[in-house]
Structures are given as structure tokens and as C-alpha cells.
Amino acid sequence: ECAAEEPRVLCIIQDTTNSKTVNERVTLNLPASTPLRRLFQDVAAKVGYANGSFHLMWGSGDNGTGTTPIDQNSDKTILDAGFEPGKKNFLHLTDKDGEQPHVMQEESGATEDGAQERFIGPLPREGSTGCTNDYVSQSYSYSSVLSKSETGYVGLVNQAMTCYLNSLLQTLFMTPEFRNALYKWEFEESEEDPERSIPYQLQRLFVLLQTSKKRAI
User: Fold this and answer.
1) Which of 48, 56, 66, 166 is the Cys-Cys partner for 61 at CB 3.0 to 4.6 Å?
2) What is the pLDDT of residues 161-182, one digit of tens each?
3) For 8-95, CATH number?
């Protein structure tokens, strides 16, 4: 009887880790007493990612600190964490430590027709050879998604609606005159904080775009 009267919290989660899922929304309607730890478990089960391989951030700065990930190991209830019953609580699912979330393996007996629809994660590019079977095979390895594209180029992970900035950065990187001029610039750590130096961070980003073995950084 108490459970029936308990307030419910509506959570709307947007997966911002790749372009295929950024427009999709996952909805959870949870009791207000749900621990944060259980919230992460439910989200992981819903989207098909391994729990602990992603962050959850507030979709707006109204509920929490905005840029600080929600503590996935906390036993604090979602109500105490700032979630509001009777309102839409928007969350962003983001990558953790620069790595894409790990896709959970399907159990060998799971062959429902909706399996492909439920899959949320990077999809193979059209026309790529030998990729489609990797995504539906039970022996599918997520490492193949993280490996560098056969084109030799490295992408940028969308940090929630930054596609316009990613396009500009890639354009600058693909301009040899600009890229080479940036490489010749030397950073003086004694004069500036490296974390606040835009040219230094841009130089570092370009080096990663040129040398990383990942599909995206």
C-alpha cells in the first residue's frame, strides 16, 4: 500500500555518445526511494550498455551541478539526489574517461525479433564490408567499434550538441597550413596554465586526431 502511494520520478535519458542514438530517448518511471545505484542498473539494462561504463549527467543545470557526473555508487535515493517527482528529469548518458560505453553481450538464447531494434550503440557504416555480421553475431566484440576507421581518420565524440564545434575543429585540422603552423607553436608552461591554454589544447587535440588508434576521441 505504501509503494502504491509513493511518488514516482520520471527520468528521460538521452544517449549522447554517438550520432546514431543522440535523437533517441529512454524513459524510466521510478519510485522516489530508488537508490542512485539502482538507477544506473536500470538505465544499463534499458539501453544495453554494461553498467559502470558510462556517466549520467543532468540534462540541464536546474537539478544538479550540471557538469558533474551523478554518483553511480551512491545509496542516496533519487529524491535526495535532486530528482523531482511529477516533473520530467532530463539526463544525458555520456562516455566515461573518453571511452565509449561497452555494449552488453546478448545471451545465447536471446533470439527475439526485436533484438536488433533494442540494440543501442554505434552502427556499421553503409557499404562497409564484413561489418554487418559483427553487429548481430553472438561473438561480436565491441573493440571493433573502437578501432580506427579504415579511412585512417579519427572522429570527435559529440559532448552533447557540439556537432557544430566538432565540424569546425575537423575543418581546421584538415587545413595543412593551419595545422602545421599550430604544430610549430611552442607552449611555455611557466607563463600559462596548460588546462586553460586554448592553443595548447588545440595542438594536443590535433596530435590525437593524427596519431590515435581509436575511432573517435
Assistant:
1) 66
2) 888 999 999 999 999 999 999 9
3) 3.10.20.90
